[in-house]
Amino acid sequence: MQAMMPTPIRAKTRLTLSQHDLPTFKVMPGEMHIGTQPEMITTTLGSCIAVICWDPALQIGGLNHFMLPCSSSHQQDGPRYGAYAMEMLINGLIHLGSSKRRLQLKCFGAAQISGFGPSVSSSNINFIRQYIANERLQLVGEDLGGQQPRQVKFNPYSGKAWVKSLPTTQSNQLSRRERRYLDDVDSELDHSNVELF
């Protein structure tokens, strides 16, 4: 019996045109997007991490955007958490014919922005490096840590990625957005089926 693969969380925001004259998809926290043709996938990062996975043989790739390594209870893990987001991205590419051994990874983000402290940034960095080592994946580039938020753009057909450091003045805005996202997700969880022991 073959296990069912959960439906990937795809980018919900499609921008009409980018400076590269390609369709552009904006990935928000807890989302991912896999592309099989020339297009641009973009995200903005504060303390979060985005991972790009690219298969050079098939010229397909994807980008995820996660906030934390895992939930404190491990009961409500979902796409906003690293382990789940990584499995979704890798399995999505394998489902399209990719091979795990061919995947090339690039990691971005985990800035120390106000409101989250250095522990969030360092735990995200430690998680992704350990995950890549445990899974024996090929890391070809990273831009992690520091104080500045980043904007990342990725073309899944060519495998090229661009990263731009953003002014630290945008840190507060990103911090508020990330905090709001965490609060929104927590309020949407259905706690009515909790069984107490």
TrEMBL record:
The keyword Hydrolase applies. Keywords: Chemotaxis, Hydrolase. CDD domains: CheD. It catalyses: L-glutaminyl-[protein] + H2O = L-glutamyl-[protein] + NH4(+). It is an enzyme of class 3 (hydrolase). Its EC number is 3.5.1.44. GO terms for biological process: chemotaxis. Pfam families: CheD. Belongs to the CheD family. Probably deamidates glutamine residues to glutamate on methyl-accepting chemotaxis receptors (MCPs), playing an important role in chemotaxis. This is Probable chemoreceptor glutamine deamidase CheD. It comes from Ferrimonas aestuarii. The lineage of its organism: Bacteria, Pseudomonadati, Pseudomonadota, Gammaproteobacteria, Alteromonadales. The gene is cheD.
